[in-house]
Queue: 3 jobs
Job 1
Amino acid sequence: MTSLVLAAPPAGIVLATGAFLWAASLGDQVLLDWAWRLPFLASAVLFALAIFIRVKLEESPEYLAALHAAKERGERRRVPVVALMREHWRAVVVGFFAITGHNALNYILAVFSLSFMTSPAVGMDRGSALTAVIIGSVCGVLATPLGGLAADRFGAHKVLAFGSLLGATGAFPLFAALSSGSAAAATVAISVGYGAVIACTSGSQGAYLAGLFPAAERFSGIALAREANGAIVAGFTPLIAATLITAAGGQTWAAALFLMACCVISVVGVLLGKPGRYTS
């Protein structure tokens, strides 16, 4: 089930990129004058939907049972993150490392690729670049549940490690395609990135991260590992990739090495973890 939830991020990328593709089709002047505001205003509907879902969402039976047991013992943890870091800091570190490759690749595909492909050095038109990301993201939406099925069958840790290893081996071909100026090559590369690598890492990471923490600290543990990685790794990846390409005189080998290193870190993180320790 977590794979269905994690199919939502590429679906969001499809909606956002499609909205800007429409806005860009109105012309540069219209886009810069007022059209760029419309996708942001429309996203307010999604915020309202997210709040509605969170209000109606029920806690898992396992969490409710742990909460009830804690109340019966008279335990009350006002700051669960303190207990989390005291008792399960290794799991937080492992979780952080395990999704490093996923976040780095995701932000290269969704964010960095657009600015890079439309840069003077590559010269692709905005419409072709946006379309490539949309098609690739659709592949991610469709394939992520398959990654979840694979995680159920073979084990979340194996699928997460396999996806990260696949991302490492595909780093150089990905950047070669993005820098080629060919819309077809870029579309294929982004589609493979989403449809194969992200499908495996997204489809498996929910179950993998849940297995690192007991029910009482699971929410805090997953949130800390994922969001810290999102802020540090994902947030800086486009900047790091652009800086490395500039430092290499326009060549992409350094950025590809960076992506490869992030994916290898994920493989190592998965190997250091104890898969399914707190889940059946």
Job 2
Amino acid sequence: MNRSDIITRSMELITSIYSDSIKSNLDSFSDDCIWIGPYSKQILFSKKKVVDLLDSRNRDYKFDILDMDSIPVAISQNCIEIILIYHLNISYPDGTSSVILQRAQLVWVKKHLRDQNGADRSDFVVRSCHLSNEMNFENHGTTPAAEVSDADKNDERPRMTPSSGKRIYLKGPKSSTIYLSENDVIRLKSNGSHTTVFTVKGEFTSSESINDIVGKYPDIFVRCHISHAVNLNYIAEVKRFRVTLKDGTQVNIPEKRYTVIRDDIQAKMRSLK
């Protein structure tokens, strides 16, 4: 298993914790894992205690991860350490919400395991998971994975609406991996072997080629030019030799390929309905 696989598993693990689907990822934890949560007395020393903690959390609070970035810190043959940084939207029972910046540090170690058939195998599992929050010096609030304090509920930081849609992973700068909703990305522009990704919050450069990104997510992006691809959800209009997006951006379509590209766009857009 390579670094990219571990980053993806890390993102899926943290996402499952907050989406209430952790049971599908329990095998990622070592039986003797260490859990350090963002709330007092959340220092646990076994997978069973982590499971008990997550099972006991208050379901009246809903959590949504708005975005996620990854930083591989230490990599060796038997140990990989990953830091994830993400904004967490917390929805309260009274209909209000707030957003915090949270960090997760996961240490994956290679262990020899035995599968259900009794066969020996080796795999990476989480030896420690440490969740921490950005400190708010004005309100002194913290937000735990299992509980939410009154200080956080009264936090006056800007509110955000969780992004909807399928989650996608793109390789970012400096070996990072960017975790986004499909509706965060408006369009792509080729930049040699890299790609400029235009999102609702700005732009960044992905170390992946535009071919690789469109190839991974053909149900989200359509290639309308050798250097451009657009998110199907943001197409406002297709007219002769150009695509107009909902933000007003216009992307030219090569004249010789206009009919083929137009028909491809129309077919994919029909499948979205």
Job 3
Amino acid sequence: MRELAPGATVNDVVLAVCAGGLRRYLDMQGELPEASLVAATPLAVRGERETAGSASFSWVRLELGTNIADPLQRLVAVQGTISSSTVMAQAVSARELTGRAQHPPSAAIAVTSKMLRSASALLGDWSPLANCAITNVPGPRVPLYLHGARLSYLSAIMPIADGMGLVFSVTSYSDMLIISFTACYEQVPDPQVLAQCLRDSFQEYLALVRPAAPRQPRAPVARMPRKVVAARPTAQRRKGAGLPQASRQSR
């Protein structure tokens, strides 16, 4: 992907995938706006008063480029929006955030939940912060086990409130990246459709970096020569043939 969009990061691709899923979903509903949707992203940033082992959090409003149909151009637009943000320059990476706490997923969820509730309470339902929120919940990079059973999947359920009815949570765990969402039923009455739109958006970007395998030409099928069968002469029946012997004798 970096060859197609130089300088693109994993965060850029995740935002572009979410944007593509939202675009597909709204287009299917006939409600795709001409202007781009805006996502609110809480980020851990370095501050002047930062204490050891802690980080302050700040909101970043980003245009997702949902008004761009081409997936590559959408990724470039998202990348340009993120690179121009002054707050993003101070952002703490997911790897660094993971090493700052003993239980990073629960800590990140708790902080993000508090920020969502605070933002909704301050803004009220008349002035939404953004169309949706996208938050990163970094998890352990090694697999976890419980009594010998391996934890195979890890996702987060984020809170929704007035003015914020759709929240995407991006969870990392053991070299995996899971995108899940929590939505208000009134805003997204068919979440399974939105989930499929996210999968289709991911496959769209996957097809950009994974070229289709060339089709192998089929080997010509050898035709067997037709076997000519000579027609057999049909014997003509004599008049009266097949009748009982007694019927051919004259009285």
